[in-house]
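Q: Joint fold for the lines below.
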Amino acid sequence: MRKEYGETTALDGVSLEIRAGDAVAVMGPSGCGKSTLLNMIAGLDRPTGGSVVVHGENVGELSEKGLALYRRRRIGMIFQFFNLIDDLSALDNVALAAQLTGTPARQARRRALELFDELGIADRRNAYPAVLSGGERQRVAVARALMNRPALLLADEPTGALDSRSGEQVMDLLLDLNQIGQTLILVTHDEHLARRCASRLVEIADGRVTGEHTLEPSA
Amino acid sequence: MRAVWRAARAAVRRRRLQTVVIALVTLTSTAAMVVALGLVDAASAPFDKAFDRQRGPHVVAAFDPDKASDEQLERTARQPGVEAAAGPFAQATVELPDDAMNFGLGSQITVVGRPGPSGPVDRVDLWAGRWATGPGEVVLNRQSDWTADDLGKKLQVPSGPDLTVVGFAFDLSRTADAWVAPEQAAALHPTVTQMLFRFTKESQAPDASSEDRLRAELATLTEGLPAGALTASRTYLTLKQQVSSSARAFTPYLMAFGVLGIAVAVLIVANVVSGAVISGFRHIGILKALGFTPGQVVAVYLTMISVPAVLGCALGTVVGNLLARPFFEFVFTGPDAGVFHGSVSVAAWVNAVTLLGVPAVCVLAALAPAVRAHRLPAARAISAGSAPRAGRALHLQRRLAGSRLPRSVSLGVGLPFARPGRSALTLAAVVLGVTTVTFATGLATTMTMLGNAGRDAYQVTVYASSFKHGKEVKPQHGDRELESLLRSLPGAREVTARADDDIRMAGSAQDVMLEGRRGDRLTLGNVLTQGRWMHRAGEVVAGSAFLRQNGLRVGDRIRLEKGDRGEDVVVVGEFMESNARLLVTDWPTVTALSPNEKPIAYHVKLRDGADPAAYARAAKAADSGISPTPTGSNSLTQTIVGSATVLTLMLTVVASLGVFNTVVLNTRDRRRDLGMLKSIGMTPRQVTVMTVTSMAVLGALGSLLGVPLGVAGYEVVVPRMAGAVDLALPPYMTDVWRAPALAGVASAGLAIAVLGALVPARRAARLTIAQVLHNE
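A: Joint structure:
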């Protein structure tokens, strides 16, 4: 896969195969193209050359609507800065993802509450993003990403904006998810996070894959 | 200062869309404001302005040349209190043959010998041809919105030489129907000498006694003349009363549009500018962090706003002036308002007010948020764009999240409440837009009904004379024969003959126009507002203006006189008519006063589907001495409906631009949210629906508030318009607020909102998610 922005080449012939249930960490210096890679997989952007195939579907060939449906059904995305809607409560932020698919409000909230229970933030369900801690916000973001039971969970620097304790909690959460079969692709600078959560490490530099390693689970 | 300029220039470059929106909004708003203020100015005192421009005479006096010589009259012009005078001019009363009607003249006209159109008093507007300088030349007094197609034609004067029309001039003061060179006037047997006086300011106090004071002034300056030298005089106040009545009908309506236009323009400009500053808070923080002083930050923002605002304002003033000229010419056209046709224009003060006022509004609108930014610590300003902020209207958002509405719709409904200040300003603009549309719809409905009243009564008017090469051609058929002929032509269904006769009403100094009707449809489409139509001889139906101005009512008896004949008649009905001289009766009554009266026209109603033009051609072929004319449209109705439509469209565009701007700003503010929503699977269509819904809410609220305001405006303005021309509108013409009409105008708010929101909404739907989220 290639991705160019004008004169700049962000990805230059990257080739990767990820199997269901894998936990892959993508690492590399700033500007190496790891977030671009994640955006291509998430269908947030289209490659300039090559293809991204997820569950037999060529993402680059989808229409705008097709891409939206692809993101809705197959992808769960976690961002460094959470990207929650300030005007909605934590519960409504999470339920929103299901409601977009046409799920009735009551049913969506029930499913969101289950996730809040699982993630240990049930008592914060009616709080608004502005009053949540960084860790709590990221847990809400994780819950939102899991709402539609995605095939792929993509995380872009999920602990980058968190203190170490909150970061640890999020790492545990991702690890648990992978252990119950959730496919996970993680972009990070943090080698500790990569080793904790991923079974495979892909190194990128200047838009190219420079190395691939299998990781031993750390304690 | 250089740093401020550089930062401002960079900000303008970086925010191209916003800069274009500010320039566009100020341009449109300024143009609307120029037209609106121009209208308010032109409509407020059109007579006084036009009169002053022509330096009209306060008194027109006629003297007996046998008793007062020209030298004596010239001396009166030098009396104290006289600011300026014109004359002495020889004045003749000239009898004309009937064909003069084709020139828009009556059977008797006043011709004045005058050396030129200019002078210290009564500067007439020579709008076509040239002034009469030699023998056999004449200039006719004609409004400049009429045509000059009679130029070069000959006017036959039975008692004098034939006169060739060499020019058309318009004299608001009506000092003459036609002018000739002074030497030519002698050949027309002048009987009086005309003098035109303008008095000094002290003599023109516009109080109730002005008429008396002007007459007293005239009496003083003619004191030295022989007794009986002054034969007649007229003050400009009588003329003002006559001329201004139709303009008075326009005034409330034009004022209403003018005020609405100004309010919409100011609101939109304030909304756009304050929104631009608020959305730049993050940039303000960065400037502060770089070392800009708070004062410099304010200066950067004021410069950033001022550049497109001043540009837009300057262009808007030019566009406004360009638009106003044809628009005013259109508004002030026709037999009613056309007397002001050449004299109305955008006043200099209007341009000055908009050129200074719009940038001032922009700076004031920018100042409040800029001062807020001035006080804001740098760190808080920087984080304003990305840090989580406490949500607004949370209770409502929660209820909406649990509603059964599609989520894109419920999210959209909640959006306006997240930015209440901006939404309130946008709502105000939409409300005014809807008010305008509602008011204009009601007005247009009434005016259309007024114009259409009786339109189906006849489709062709056949005048009982025609002209060929300036000479009258008489009909080949007599009165009754002609009527039968017209009735027998293909397509004819009804024929009604009409005669107009100048008579007098006992006890009144004013002439009365008695219209006698004969044939199939005596009502001729006139709208009865009270009483009934005449059933027998001795009954008349009067126009509403006639009754009001003569203090009469239905049921009153009056005596009509013509020469040595007289008839007592009873007023049995009132019909809608602004001509204060008009009475309608049947044929026996009019011939009882004028036994030889002949119809001047025949009104023909055609069968359904018959072509009026084909009928007119057939009639002309049957008798070349008649002038068949298919009925034209009502110019007053056309003017009001046309101008209301133009103004409504203009204000709708400005209001839509306000919505457009709000959506652009909201989209900019919510880029991160939109990116996130798309990242979790919101389709472009859902983004568009959400964004359009957010404005549709304001549109619906705007309709809810704007429709009653528009109806109220209609109820205030329309009766005053009718009252100004002594018209009583029948209830069916003012009963315009039926369910379909209300539903139609209620949809105006939605239309304005959707129109303004659609383009930026689609743009928002196309946002590149990766880019938006990456920026964070």
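Q: Anything notable?
A: The two ends of chain B are 32 Å apart (CA to CA). Confidence is low (pLDDT under 50) at residues 205-209 of chain B.
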